[in-house]
Design a protein that fits this description.
Blueprint (H helix, E strand, L loop, with lengths): L1 E7 L5 H13 L6 E6 L7 H4 L3 H18 L4 E6 L5 H14 L2 E7 L3 H13 L7 H10 L13 E4 L1 H4 L6 H11 L16 H35 L24 H21 L7 H15 L4
Parallel strand pairs: 1-3, 1-4, 2-3, 4-5
Helix pairs in contact: 1-8, 3-4, 3-9, 9-10, 9-11
Organism: Sesamum angolense
Family: Belongs to the KTI12 family.
Protein name: Protein KTI12 homolog
């Protein structure tokens, strides 16, 4: 039904805005299904997630994959994150277009001094807060949304430091109206993005497959780590992944860095082979089976 991108500086009130918007949407007559996607959904620590570029890139990938999986014409997805890079907002806009849904951006426009003060107050209350170095870096790299860009339009501006954030805030009321208004052939003030043939095929054959591969390989890797932890350095007699799936026989301890490297290589090889051969697996069990075969082969057990 719609994708809402919340953006703003760190500690600018984005999560409060997302919660108020979700609550306001639940009070309209149609009562749409609303879901908020954010870092806490995946138990991600904000300082670790923004500690360096690879970690930040991984965070954006996790959120993007979850948005891509969740988007449909029957629900409203609110992405509650910094969403500070215009290129990333464009990627989210493309997901909305591929799903054929409405799209809008809600910007929490707050002066840096207020954000810094609110971050410090959170730290004093022992609540999740940004380290000063990470905070400064995020503020420096923030790219303000511009309503002239299609991926930043329509743009609803909140001014938390001046007006606060409540359900009755003008920007939230306007966003709710935009997201829930019934459209017909005469409607001009609400834009429903239309997927192209290219985006539709990519969504089916690539995005879903890559999501399943990413999720399945991560699950296998976590099961190996857990099994090794339980074995306390002793030999493993096979890591069982469940009924109908092959087991992994490990004759030596495997560190997390090596597992991550093998996983990255497998995902890369799978994507490359799909360009000239059969498509990658689109379900979790097939992806796990392929990954286990790859691991057993690379580790000398298959």
């Amino acid at each position: 039904m719609a994708l809402v991108v919340i953006c703003g500086q760190p500690c600018s009130g984005k999560s409060t805005a997302a919660a108020c918007l979700a609550e306001a949407l639940q009070e309209v007559e149609s009562k749409p299904t609303v879901r908020i996607v954010n870092e806490s959904s995946f138990h991600l620590n904000r300082n670790e997630s923004y500690a360096n570029m690879p970690a930040e890139k991984n965070l954006r990938g996790v959120l993007r994959s979850e948005v891509d999986r969740s988007l449909s014409r029957d629900n409203i997805i609110i992405v509650d994150s910094l969403n500070s890079i215009k290129g990333y907002r464009y990627e989210l806009w493309c997901l909305a277009r591929a799903a054929g849904t409405r799209y809008c951006v809600v910007h929490c426009d707050v002066e840096e001094s207020y954000c810094r003060q609110w971050n410090e107050e959170r730290r004093n209350r022992s609540e999740p807060a940004y380290d000063d170095k990470i905070f400064d870096d995020l503020v420096r790299r923030f790219e303000r949304p511009d309503s002239r860009n299609r991926w930043d339009s329509p743009l609803f501006e909140l001014l938390p430091s001046r007006d606060g954030i409540v359900k009755s805030s003008a920007a939230i009321v306007d966003a709710v109206t935009y997201l829930t208004k019934k459209v017909d052939s005469k409607t001009r003030d609400v834009k429903v993005l239309q997927p192209t043939i290219a985006t539709q095929s990519a969504r089916v054959t690539q995005a879903n497959s890559l999501y399943e591969i990413d999720r399945a390989t991560l699950e296998v890797m976590n099961m190996i780590i857990e099994a090794q932890s339980l074995a306390m350095g002793g030999p493993l007699n096979g890591v069982s992944l469940g009924p109908g799936l092959p087991s992994i026989d490990i004759s030596r301890p495997i560190g997390l860095p090596e597992l991550r490297k093998l996983r990255r290589t497998f995902i890369k090889l799978t994507g490359q082979s799909s360009l000239s051969g059969p498509p990658p697996p689109s379900d979790a069990d097939s992806a796990k089976r392929m990954f286990v075969d790859y691991l057993n082969r690379e580790l000398g057990n298959g």
